[in-house]
Amino acid sequence: SPTDSPDLLHMVEKTGQLNKTKIAEGGRKLRKCWASSWLVLAGNSLMFYKDPKVAAGWTPASSRPESSVDLRGARIDWARDLSSKRNVIHFRTVTGNEYLLQSGSEAVSQDWYQAIRGVIRRLDQE
Ligand code: I3S
User: Rounded to whole angstroms, how far apart are CA atoms 19 and 86?
Assistant: First the structure.
């Protein structure tokens, strides 16, 4: 967990707000429930918080996320038939948990796509 991993203190790659919904758990389809979420990409993990964490000195070790996914072995692509919304990222963890991430801004979604894909690729090479 983040609180057990002091290395994460130095490894925050990206933070920001996106719309998020989980669409599958262990390969089993879930009903969509879109909600705004504060994302922190750090180390091997993408962490989801209810509220933005913008205080000076904040680190992932400072507070437990609502949920967190291990990006090792994950797959990412653009959601095409999975939502009527624009700029929707789709990713799937090795355990079969699937999420959609969305922003009204194409640039914001593109930046997140590249950042998450970068982490997945780095982990693939380890
Ligand atoms: O894939 P779906 O079922 O069209 O997803 C829509 C629904 O989850 C809907 O909620 P209800 O299940 O209460 O009707 C949401 O309000 C929509 O946002 C979902 O579709 P989009 O295309 O926005 O992901």
Answer: 11
